[in-house]
Amino acid sequence: MENQTICTDIEKIKILKQASSHVCEACAKIGGRWLHLRTCQTCGVTLCCDSSPNQHMTAHFHHSGHPTVSSAESGERWLWCYEHEIFSEY
């Protein structure tokens, strides 16, 4: 990961969790739709981003306290820490 300032939550990540499928698990259960996907780096769940109608990943952070996510989009290589509001490319 190359960034001048990263937080302790991002520094703790040694192996990136990857999306097992390209679907928002919560949207799939309710018949919702999503725009982009994020994968939680604590538990591995893949959920939709804040540009999506249901914003499931942010809700997951508020419910679980899991601070870091990675983009599950093809070609994107970045992490976001909700707790510290830090973005880091890798």
UniProtKB/TrEMBL annotation:
> In which domain of life is the source organism classified?
Bacteria
Gene Ontology MF annotations: zinc ion binding
Concerning Pfam families, the annotation shows: zf-UBP
UniProt cross-references to Gene3D superfamilies, sorted A to Z:
Zinc/RING finger domain, C3HC4 (zinc finger)
PROSITE patterns associated with the record: ZF_UBP, ZINC_FINGER_C2H2_1
**InterPro entries the record matches:** Znf_C2H2_type (IPR013087), Znf_RING/FYVE/PHD (IPR013083), Znf_UBP (IPR001607)
UniProt domain UBP-type: residue ranges: 5-90
Q: What is this protein called?
A: UBP-type domain-containing protein
The species this protein belongs to is: Pedobacter miscanthi
